[in-house]
Structures are given as structure tokens and as C-alpha cells.
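[step 3/7] fold_predict: job queued, chain A
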Amino acid sequence: MTSEPGRPGAARYVLFDVDGTLIDAVENQRLVWRTWAERYGLDPDEVHRVALRTRPMETFAQVAPDKDPRECLAALHALEDEDVRSGTYTAFDGALELLSSLRPGAWALVTSNYEHRVRGRFTRTGLPVPEVLVDAAAVEEGKPSPVPYLRAAARLGARPEECLVIEDAPSGVRSGLRAGMTVWGVNTAEAEDGVHRHFGSLHDAVGDILAFASGLPPHRPEGAGTATRSSPWQPKEAETMGS
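[step 4/7] structure written:
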């Protein structure tokens, strides 16, 4: 498929990941997993290393195969809920300006976390919550499946080719690509495989994201994000990837 960023009246939608994209929760996640690991007498550094690349139930299977995974998950969720209440959170530079500038109904959050935690973090950081929020409870298949991003697009009344996904993690990038959407990476030193454009920070991407949402040509100040494909918006043909 081809994009038409300059077509007057073209609908554009932006779908955001949350942790690592809009909110810096790295230290919070590290502390939660450290506390969880110490509770079970495990090496915190090893547990966190595994948790960074696997989903919780997969993490438990690797680091605590002799423990009841349901008990492990309940303990983790309790720690995460407490962290939302008492932890310190920071929105990435540019997040408030960006979200406050987007048209209501033209953007959504797509997260592997749960809605009540996202709302708690957004309240703590002063970020607005959109009309559409797709969380872990809303889908049976999480990222890297395309289902979460496709669900968000459907709720917005958008077609995949009209959507821009903003992500920081490999699983989220794959999810957006498999959904047939344009995917830009932010907040990483190197571009994740497959992204159409890469920005070292969310702040660097603000102008381009707003331009996409407005159907305008991409904004490219000196030092801004680099394109990794021939089109600044999306590939000339739809991305297809295996599951």
C-alpha cells in the first residue's frame, strides 16, 4: 500500500505505546522485579534480565519453575499496584505537548499493562488520557501480535494504513508492522529492526508526529530522526511478517 500524507482531508491516527515511550518507568520496573525476586530468594539481576525480554508467565517459568505461576503473578501485580500509588514517575520530554496537541478521537494508547495502572501513572505525570485505551485485559493476544494495534484502530474507526505507531520496544514494533501500520521508534540509541523512522528521543519526534496527524509533509529539522525506508511515512508495500 502507498501513503498519501498530503491528500487534503486524509484521516490520520496516532497509536502510542506507554512505558518507555511516553512514560519513563525503567527504574520502577527494575525495583518491582527486584522486590519480587528477593521475596522468592532469587537473584534480582538475573530475574530482571529475563523479565526484560519475556512476558511475566514466561519469566516465572524460567526463573521460578517450582513456584505456582498464579501466586507469582498475584505477587507481581500487588507490587506493581503499590508502585503506581507510591512510586515516582516521569513523562518523557515532549509527551505533554504532543498529547495535548492531538485532536481528540485521533489517538489512542496501546499497552501491555493494565488500564488502572496507566490511568494512575498519567494522573501522576499530568498527561491526558485518550478516549481509546487498549490494555492487556482488552485482548487475548498481546504484542507482538497485531491484535492490540488492530483493536485500537477499529475502536477509532481507522484503517491500518491511516495509523502511525510510536514504540520503543521490539515486540511493539513487530506488533505495529504486522498490523500493516507505519511504525516509528523513539527513545532508543539504535533503530529497532523494521521501523520506518527512528528518533533518539520522543522530544525529537514531536514535530513529525503532529505533522503526520495533520496530513502534512514530515517536519525535518536538523538532527531530527532518520528515515530507515524510502518513504518518511510508511513502506511502499504493506509489511508482512510471520508470527
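[step 5/7] annotate
The chain is about 40% helix and 10% strand.
The beta strands are 13-16, 23-24, 90-91, 107-110, 132-134, 163-167, 182-185, 197-198, 226-227.
exit 0
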